[in-house]
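Now for a sample.
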Amino acid sequence: MNEGFRSKRGIVLSITLLIALIASGCTQNKTVKVGIEENFRPYTYTEGSEKKGFEVDLWQALAKKSKLTYELVPMEMGELNKGLKSGAIDLAIAGKTITDARSNDLEYSDPYFQTNLVILTASENSTIKGKDDLVQKAIATENGSPGFYYASEIQGAKIHGFSKISDAYEELKSHKADAVIVEERNAQDYIKNTAQGSVKIAGEPFQKESLAILAKKKNKYIGKINEALQSVSKDGTYEDLYTKWFTGKPKMMPNKIKKEVEHDLQHEA
């Protein structure tokens, strides 16, 4: 092999290696766009120009562990899956469930929270005592939420879907809807801070849901996020954040929620 050929080959290999290194550096320094819900207390909300909530704080802790540079992108719940599929956002941490991820062919992280749905009615309502009383009722809920999908399965229900949960609450307060189906902690926050005694929770919580961070299939983030979630669970960060936003220690840590989800999926299959 002549020296000229070897020299040219060496230059080509050097250029290829340089391009690979540059590409790798660009990937590491990329700003990850993370979709959050616009106003869903106590998970995510904006106060002034500051984004707050349990999911915001948890994401910041996970991003720090994963060494990810990010931008939080507030969106309506119904637009998050579209944003993931179109590439407008890379990840979503916004009360999104594993059930939602599976039905929309999205990848999901290990679960970070377990919750339930509840029914809100007007305080004076005595006819709706639980989910079995919702047949042929007018139900307000948030588009794209677990509550929306649950309501869609109720026989004869008249669904009033809204882009914001606050609008669903207003529909109930103005007696244009018989009930709201919504996530339990958000309902509790609304009753405590906004409703002024006008609504109540009817019956017991139902429809267990496990929340996870969602992404497109074949992404490069979920593995790092799962490692970070394990880390913040072990070092006390998760428990501190839970206590800050929900008062009291968590009944289930993420690793236990994960085992329960795996058990449920195995029995489902």
